[in-house]
Amino acid sequence: MKHLLLSFALFGSVTLFAQSAHETAYSFMKTGDHDNAILVLNKALQNSPNDEQLLQDITLAYYYKKDFTHARDYAKKLVDLDNVDVASYQIAGTVYRALEEAKEADKLYKKALKKYPNSGVLYSEYGELLWSKNDDAAIDQWEKGIQADPSYAGNYYHASSYYFFTKDKVWSLIYGEIFVNMEYLTERAREIKEQLLKAYKEKIFLTSNSDEGKPTSPFAQAVYETYAKQNSLTGKGVTVETLTMIRTRFILDWYAKYASKFPFRLFDYQQQLLRSGMFEAYNQWLFGPIENLAAFEQWTRTNADAYKKFTAFQRGRVFKMPGGQFYGVTKKST
Questions:
Q1: For residue 138, with 0-12 CB atoms within 10 Å meaning exposed, 13-18 middle and 19 or more buried, which class applies?
Q2: Which long-range contacts (CB under 8 A, 24 or more apart) does 42-46 make?
Q3: Read out DSSP for 83-99?
Q4: 108 CB contacts (<8 Å, ≥6 apart)?
């Protein structure tokens, strides 16, 4: 019993020492003093050579120092440990990608996803790796990430951007709007808002005799057909005002015909805003600053109460997509 208690005491002291080293190193890294962080972490690793947190820290310290060779040495030690977490695989993958060691990174992400098949961030980063090699199989990973972990925003961002540059008429709109509701305060959100407005102008209302780009899944076909019914409203162009009318009619028609067959959180949210009188403000927030900033600012001054009501509502909630509402078609990798 005495030996057992001593072992627990030693374990506790090592853990406290490792935690202290982590906090000290983190403070150094925040100020850009990576050399001192590495010094502290090296000493701590002498006592706890297999501590996952310390190995993560020192890998990141070398990575931020741009000493990728040493970062790789520790990344290998890190992912060779038993039962490492998702963050460890992320860190190691980032190092391999910085070194442009695509084969090693590919093996790593496959290993990681075998262990964590529901990790949205791993699918997102594996897709980024594939896309850096101009491999269209990247979209398979992003769609798998959306299906497995629908509350993670990154896969919607990448999938929306991917589909925008294809002939597809629907998915850049769907995934893009989901993304900006999940992550609306970043530069990526502004990028996707610009893309959304372009997609409404350049894709969904342009007709063609060709089948190229037309939806192949029942859900996407239903979305396309419901938007196509509003085509007469585009006679004066696609503006914030016409989009508000188009999207209002879309929601009314969708809930009259397709909502029970295809439950979808994004459309539920749009219907909620429509019923509560906030849908116009939402569309102004979504498209106004992109289309014409001066006109948007004038609208918010003229409709100050309506816009304040919407933004207060938006800040007070978190938009998440639930499981079981994946209607994309994951293509087979080539």
A1: buried
A2: 44/17, 44/18
A3: T--HHHHHHHHHHHHHT
A4: 79, 89, 92, 93, 96
pTM greater than 0.85 (yes/no): yes
**How much of the chain exceeds pLDDT 70, in percent?**
91
Interior angle at CA 313, CA 310 and CA 318, nearest 5: 125
Q: Evaluate if residue 306 carries a pLDDT over 80.
A: yes
Tokens 């067959």 sit on residue: 261
**Residue ranges making up the domain that contains 233:** 185-329
CATH number of the domain within which 71 lies: 1.25.40.10
Q: What is the pLDDT of residues 216-229, one digit of tens each?
A: 789 999 999 999 99
CB 215 within 8 Å of CB 180? no
Same domain, yes or no, for 325 and 195?
Answer: yes
pLDDT at position 236, please?
A: 82
Report the number of distinct structural domains present in the chain: 2
Within 10 Å of residue 296's Cβ, how many Cβ atoms?
18
Classify each residue of 68-89 as buried b or exposed e, where b means 16 or more C-beta atoms within 10 Å of its C-beta. Answer: bebbbebbbbbbeeeebebebb
Question: Does residue 92 lie in a domain region?
Answer: yes
Q: Is 25 exposed, middle or buried (0-12, 13-18, 19+ CB in 10 A)?
A: buried
Q: What is the pLDDT of residue 15?
A: 65
Q: Which residues, in sequence order, are CB contacts of 173 under 8 Å at separation 6+?
A: 196, 199, 200, 203, 204, 223
Residues near 133 by beta carbon (within 8 Å), at least 6 away in sequence: 102
- How would residue 214 be classed by pLDDT, with cut points 50, 70 and 90? confident
